[in-house]
Amino acid sequence: MNETHRLFSEFPPVTAEQWKEIIIKELKGADYEKKLLWNSPEGIVIKPFYTKEDVPSNFYQSDYSENVHIRRSCKTNNNWVIFEEIYVSDIEKANYQATDALKRGAEGIEFIIQDKIHYELTSLLKSKNDLARLLQNINLEKVPIRFICGCNTGLILSLFDEYLQQNYVDKEKVQIIFDYDPIGHLILNGNFFTAEEHVFAQSASLVKYAKQLLSDKSTALAVNGYFFQNAGATVLQELAFSLAIAAEYLTNLSEHGIAVEDVAQYMTFNFGVASNYFLEIAKFRAARYLWSKLLEAYEVKSQNIFLNAHAVTTTWNKTAYDPYVNLLRLTTEAMSAVLGGVNSLTVRPFDVVYKSPDSFSQRLSRNIQLLLKEEVHLDRVIDPAGGSYYIESLTFSLINEAWKMFLQINEKGGFVQLFKEGIIQSMVEQTQQKRDMAIAMRQEILLGTNQYPNINEVIKEQVLPCILKGIMPSGKPTYKPIKIYRGAEAFENLRLETEQMKKRPSVFLLTFGNLAMRKARANFSTNFFGCAGYEIMDNPGFSTIEEGINEARKSTAEIVVICSSDEEYPEIVPPIVQALNNEKILVLAGYPKEHLENFKSLGLKHFIHIKSNVLETLKGFNALIKEGSYC
Known about the structure:
Blueprint lengths: L1 H7 L7 H12 L4 H5 L1 E2 L5 E2 L34 E7 L3 H13 L4 E5 L15 H7 L10 E4 L4 H14 L9 E5 L1 H8 L9 H15 L5 E6 L1 H4 L5 H20 L5 H6 L1 E7 L3 H21 L11 E5 L11 H16 L3 E3 L12 H17 L13 H23 L3 H6 L2 H18 L24 H4 L20 H12 L5 E6 L3 H16 L4 E3 L7 H10 L4 E5 L5 H12 L4 E5 L6 H7 L3 E3 L5 H14 L4
Parallel strand pairs: 3-4, 3-10, 4-5, 5-6, 6-7, 7-8, 8-9, 9-10, 11-12, 11-13, 13-14, 14-15
Antiparallel strand pairs: 1-2
Helix pairs in contact: 5-6, 6-8, 8-10, 10-12, 10-15, 12-13, 12-15, 13-14, 19-24, 21-22
């Protein structure tokens, strides 16, 4: 250790100001804040570098005993449970899939008894024999089981009561997790599945029953924060809303005779995890700290009740086009969840957003987690993100901002009251609108969908339209539900519309002049129109304008894009417009401001450039092509 100190003594400490001075020098006059600082959707300013000064004193301690709730309760490793989803439409088939998954590396099974989003009042499991068939050859003393069964939780709990007794299972070794979440039902469907005045009384009865039947390792209540993630909400909103929902359960169930400690003990948080890698890591660390602060506010000894955090990969950023890119997204999301220290994780299959998953896609999802555990060994390091000034700073920022939002919700009457008033929905909708616009403008990239598409890909015969249409509320809403959908849906609908046309629209790239500019603008145009699934007729460059015009005229393309430099456009645009404007839809790649009015006076109407609304522009071209009887 002394040798290490002597070694580092050779290097004088470098302050944040010194680092910044060097960076500003390298920028050569460019504005430091405009160039290198950016705001996350949560409003958190992200800096280009972080130092110890960015983390508040005493916020991070190397000793595990300090700030223990930022870390997990486990003090020996970072192990998590690998869960696999099984949809129960047929009991025998579901049992086979579950036992097969366990043989192939899954460590826990997540049985979805009805649709994962809607809480139906029917269940395939109607008797203890049905439950026995579902759990056949599954050792409940070793395999954790999650039940996504909503308002059927009470029924399945009663079946478990009989099952455990008749099969001589030691309930203290059994871990059963239920997702009973009436507030979640309100969020997604705009109504409670029972009379509103009885909701929390029934929830209290359920917790009391679960406490009698199940071990302390099991849970009955759930806070489904991933609903907000799948609606496009920010990480900050997911944290604050989840905390506010948990507070509703702690308050209302304790008023119905259940000790706050018992409510907290039997509660699971189901978070989504998206592809904002470092922010997601910080989110899980912040969630544990916020949970401890919430329990302290209820005068509960938080050292005894740690956050039970389960993560589910989000569907918001998953795409039907270029679907194998989803595997890359799933990998980074799984890493964020694991590095953030979740207790368990479900990696949803890459193709689940457009069809029923098969054994191939399920195996790939399972293997992502197995790879992180068996080859990368992320299960062996406690709080691997701890000590990173960047992540510690993000964690602290999320804690502060989420707590502020939670207090605002609480002061105005709590989550349920604000939801009834439409305030929660409005907050989510504002985020949705911003993200929708960012995707339409390609400020938020979905690879293979709104940028770098596979232009020859066709999916209309492979997708289930009912899945692509998104989630609709179940029953008649009393209040406005939030909208669950994917960011890619609008582009996918546009491209599917193209696939339905009798003739695939074509784009002819009329390239001329400056080699670098014509190639750059041809590439830009290829990506732009490829997002709608158009055929692209690229060209290496014409030696004369007349040659380009003649080739464009002979082509079957409905659209001709002029690709050259701003300096050459004044010379080449007039003859092209004069020759082709009545035959083709003419488009200029670029936005030369000083020449726009002149070009428009010649009859040129369409311009594509980096600030274009790609989605709306392509919708307009689809409409023009239809009007021209091209399809």
